[in-house]
Amino acid sequence: MLLLAYYFKHHPIGKYKWYWLIILSLLGSLLFALPFYYWLNTKDKK
Q1: What would the DSSP string read from start to end of 1-46?
Q2: What is the rounded CA–CA span in Å between residue 25 and residue 28?
Q3: How far apart are CA 10 and CA 27, in angstroms?
Q4: 38-41: which pairs have CB atoms within 8 A and are 24 or more residues apart?
Q5: pLDDT value for 46
Q6: What is the pLDDT of residue 44?
Q7: Taking a C-beta distance cutoff of 8 angstroms, is the pair 21, 5 a contact?
Q8: Distance CA 46, CA 23 (A)
Q9: Rounded to an integer, what distance in angstroms lies between the CA atom of residue 30 and that of residue 15?
Q10: Is the Cα torsion angle 16, 8, 34, 23 positive or negative in sign?
């Protein structure tokens, strides 16, 4: 989780910051957090 957060800190994929990945991971799991974080950041790029 920390390596992914570090990667997204330096290579953001959208407007939601890297710390949201950590928050979502703590609320659920990394299997939930990664797809949801990706969806949040790419849903407005249509």
Answers
A1: -HHHHHHHHHS--SSS-THHHHHHHHHS-HHHHHHHHHHHHHTT--
A2: 5
A3: 23
A4: 38/13, 40/14, 40/16, 41/12, 41/13, 41/14, 41/15, 41/16
A5: 60
A6: 78
A7: yes
A8: 26
A9: 20
A10: negative
Euclidean distance between CA atoms 23 and 11, whole angstroms: 18
pLDDT single digits (tens) 1-13: 889 999 999 999 9
Q: Is the pTM of this model over 0.90?
A: no
Residue type, 6: Y
Amino acid at 26: L
Give the pLDDT of the chain (46 residues) as one tens digit per residue.
Answer: 889 999 999 999 989 999 999 999 999 888 899 999 999 999 876 6
